[in-house]
Amino acid sequence: MSRKVFIYANTTEASARIEKNLRTKLIKSGLQVHEEFNKDTELILCIGGDGTLLNLMQDLEFPETPVVGINTGHLGFFQEIPPEKIDDMIYQYNQGNYTLQSFSTVKDCVTTADGVFRHTALNEIAVKGLPNYPVHLNISINASFIERFSGDGLCVATPAGSTAYNYSLGGSIVDPRLHLLQVTPIAPMNSIAYRSFLTSLLLPGSDTLSIQPCNDADSQLTLVYDGRVAEYKQVKEIQITLSRKKVNMIRFSHLSFWDKAKSKFL
Ligand code: NAP
């Protein structure tokens, strides 16, 4: 049986150099490097930073195929393998000496006067109003009205994304083994004129967050999903839930999530 692998890389010079080297080594080890990703691909090798992994997921529409991340970026939270460990990585992979770490993803459904639009994200989906203006949004959880939110917007993060934008907003770091969504306010307004929640809300994985513009002036919304931007006019409702799609990263080390969080953030 042929063992097909696919390489996805960002466009830096360092990644191009590593890709060339990796390609030769993979072939030598008996793996077939294919130019296209398809359902027979047994492994994806992603070269770049965490942002490259986010792009891979968007471009390949969230494949559940296992991914090895070779880090040529800055932080490397998802992307674990340093380029100098490529030989060992190929050996351990071929020996089957690894575990899979699965990450939940988040999805939205945006209903506008022009139709319905959907996105999926690994880190987060942020809902914002017009640049430089506060937005007023009615927030419901499972169809129960919670409050009228006023501020720059809301960031709805997965546990995997809890260390990204969510963390900069004051949200909590969440172990990816937990099945939940974290809703963190972005610059919430809190005065006698407007009352908005100030800390993160944690929702069970089965819950649905619904967001409705309070009036027509608030219906022009921007969605930022893993850094990609989509703008909509005449939004009626946005529903956000955990998605069934999982991102599966191959792990060769026995470092726990918290060992890693400590080394990168704490
Ligand atoms: P970028 O501006 O090039 O990089 C954002 C930084 O976030 C990079 O250092 C990246 O790591 C890191 N990162 C990505 N996912 C992460 C995660 N799950 N945990 C910890 N750090 C993570 O943009 P990008 O690379 O396209 O990434 C898009 C992400 O940027 C969004 O999903 C959002 O979470 C984040 N963001 C953060 C802020 C903020 O903190 N104020 C604002 C907007 C967006 P690498 O260096 O390894 O690539």
Radius of gyration: 20 Å
Bound molecules: NADP nicotinamide-adenine-dinucleotide phosphate
Q: Which residues sit in consecutive blocks of at least 5 with pLDDT less than 50?
A: none
Average pLDDT, rounded to a whole number, is 96
The main β sheet shows up as: 11 strands, antiparallel
| DSSP helix fraction | 10-25%
- As an assembly, this protein is single chain
Strand fraction equals 35-45%
Query: Could you spell the SSE succession in H and E letters?
Result: EHEEHEHEEEEEHEEEEEEH
Number of helices: 5
Instruction: Let me know the number of strands.
Output: 15
- End-to-end gap: 45 Å
What is the approximate shape? Answer: elongated
> Structural class of the helix and strand makeup?
alpha+beta
Write a brief structural summary.
By secondary structure, the protein is α+β, with helices and mostly antiparallel strands. It has helices at residues 13-28, 50-59, 86-95, 165-168, 257-264, and strands at residues 4-9, 32-34, 41-48, 67-71, 99-112, 115-121, 124-128, 135-141, 144-157, 180-188, 201-204, 209-213, 221-225, 228-232, 235-251.
Task: Name its key features.
binds NADP nicotinamide-adenine-dinucleotide phosphate, 266 residues, elongated, 4-stranded parallel β-sheet, 15 strands, 11-stranded antiparallel β-sheet, alpha+beta
